[in-house]
């Protein structure tokens, strides 16, 4: 929600643990990326975040992180062209000032060349002049290296963010760019011959890095590691095709294999996943918590540091100084330290009605019954009575809930105190589960009703722009997914999804095809264009949480 295209996801990484590993300790620690800020196009403040303030770094420090990856876009700050490519002195100074804010708080830091990879350094564009890319890379890094050459060894450099490359030839060029980068910072002097660097493969993609990356010339004395990025599985991370679940054995095996591939190719090289995320905005909560836990532990298993990407919308509310999902945040920090976390169960495939132990859902107007939720305690024990978070009111075990193995049953008599005949829809309470170690979990008690639409169809507008379908949220304040079916029964997008499990078929993709606001659901312009191209009336089924039969409404666009 409120995203600035997929770019924003890439533009806001928090930096979890990456590069202290590269530097000295070779331990997995916790870092955070300050995204959508100095990397914004065209400049700081252009995207969803105001300019950097030092207090944000205090918040990150107090939350247990050890480093910050500071992405910086330089494209719009050159004051001369070829051959000098002079960088605006004010911009270089601003970058130095922000780095000083970071280093003075005892963080490690990584600074890079960020969305330049979308403009002058995109090797996949037919008109890209590779000689010019090489020239610019040298000149830019020489200036950055000169400006920052005397910073402490806690500052590391990263060649370039996610430089596009699709062929072995591009892979070779990127290896050359890593060399040019090393040459430039070494020529710039200062401490740079000893500075830690993270080198990159095409797209900072794990697979492509294993295919094409070559080690730098031994004449460079810089301690180096490889940085790669991880946003997988695509459907879960980006809410495509109704994938509101994660955590099957197959899901876990795939993540493990992705980390193993890179590690097994580079057994003696420090590895940093410089970006990863599963956003609070658009992933199902229990699935997200288990993903955080599993990713952090798998990274540790393969001796790989991780940096979480935050675009200012996903995780840290920089203005409020609060984590939007404090449980996920805590799971991450504990998992990195190797402390077991108890985790909530949830459905792991799309074939049935979905259950999530991060919630107690009660349908307004229905009778209240006992609710049993399953957990994976992972050796932990509940160490206190469950409490209502806001009031700190303690529940009584036996009377209000019972514990059996790793299942907790909330008694209808207790639930009737939350879900009264007059209580509103929406979140009514959070219940806190405290364990003898690891993260305290919360269960969000939500009363819901299926929202109704005032209008259930409209004529496709003559020109395509985003279309708001107004509705009043009555439970979670976001949809689960949207299905789009043409009058002839075929899907508006991705006909192949007919082979997916029932709850994924014909579902379309968040951000590019659908979105939402406080006022309702948004069909994106691209979706309207697809209806026009399809030439048939198209029915959109907007599905809500919990995903169960009937908790959906239909809206038809008539051509
Ligand atoms: C490519 O860039 C180099 C270096 O800036 C320049 O000398 C050359 O003329 C450029 N080639 C073309 C075709 O523009
Ligand atoms: C290294 O990467 C290549 C290319 O992806 C792959 O084919 C190979 O199996 C990997 N090697 C190991 C030991 O994992
Ligand atoms: C982790 O990797 C670093 C080098 O990157 C190495 O020094 C260290 O021994 C590794 N630790 C383990 C447990 O393999
Ligand atoms: C709901 O509770 C009332 C009163 O106990 C009972 O008469 C009714 O049958 C219940 N409805 C359902 C669907 O269980
Ligand atoms: C419960 O927690 C969620 C997530 O932090 C929050 O959005 C919601 O407002 C909370 N509910 C109450 C009643 O405080
Ligand atoms: C929405 O449309 C689908 C497919 O035509 C239908 O099965 C479902 O009953 C409709 N749902 C509602 C709430 O009208």
From TrEMBL:
<dbReference type="InterPro" id="IPR005102">
    <property type="entry name" value="Carbo-bd_X2"/>
</dbReference>
<dbReference type="GO" id="GO:0008422">
    <property type="term" value="F:beta-glucosidase activity"/>
</dbReference>
<keyword id="KW-0961">Cell wall biogenesis/degradation</keyword>
<feature type="domain" description="Carbohydrate binding X2">
    <location>
        <begin position="355"/>
        <end position="443"/>
    </location>
</feature>
<protein>
    <submittedName>
        <fullName>Glycoside hydrolase</fullName>
    </submittedName>
</protein>
<dbReference type="GO" id="GO:0071555">
    <property type="term" value="P:cell wall organization"/>
</dbReference>
<keyword id="KW-0732">Signal</keyword>
<dbReference type="InterPro" id="IPR050386">
    <property type="entry name" value="Glycosyl_hydrolase_5"/>
</dbReference>
<dbReference type="InterPro" id="IPR014756">
    <property type="entry name" value="Ig_E-set"/>
</dbReference>
<dbReference type="GO" id="GO:0009986">
    <property type="term" value="C:cell surface"/>
</dbReference>
<comment type="similarity">
    <text>Belongs to the glycosyl hydrolase 5 (cellulase A) family.</text>
</comment>
<dbReference type="InterPro" id="IPR016282">
    <property type="entry name" value="Glyco_hydro_5_endoGlcnase_B"/>
</dbReference>
<dbReference type="Pfam" id="PF00150">
    <property type="entry name" value="Cellulase"/>
</dbReference>
<dbReference type="InterPro" id="IPR013783">
    <property type="entry name" value="Ig-like_fold"/>
</dbReference>
<keyword id="KW-0624">Polysaccharide degradation</keyword>
<feature type="domain" description="Glycoside hydrolase family 5">
    <location>
        <begin position="39"/>
        <end position="312"/>
    </location>
</feature>
<keyword id="KW-0119">Carbohydrate metabolism</keyword>
<feature type="signal peptide">
    <location>
        <begin position="1"/>
        <end position="20"/>
    </location>
</feature>
<dbReference type="InterPro" id="IPR017853">
    <property type="entry name" value="GH"/>
</dbReference>
<keyword id="KW-0136">Cellulose degradation</keyword>
<keyword id="KW-0326">Glycosidase</keyword>
<dbReference type="InterPro" id="IPR001547">
    <property type="entry name" value="Glyco_hydro_5"/>
</dbReference>
<dbReference type="GO" id="GO:0005978">
    <property type="term" value="P:glycogen biosynthetic process"/>
</dbReference>
<dbReference type="GO" id="GO:0030245">
    <property type="term" value="P:cellulose catabolic process"/>
</dbReference>
<keyword id="KW-0378">Hydrolase</keyword>
<dbReference type="Pfam" id="PF03442">
    <property type="entry name" value="CBM_X2"/>
</dbReference>
<dbReference type="GO" id="GO:0005576">
    <property type="term" value="C:extracellular region"/>
</dbReference>
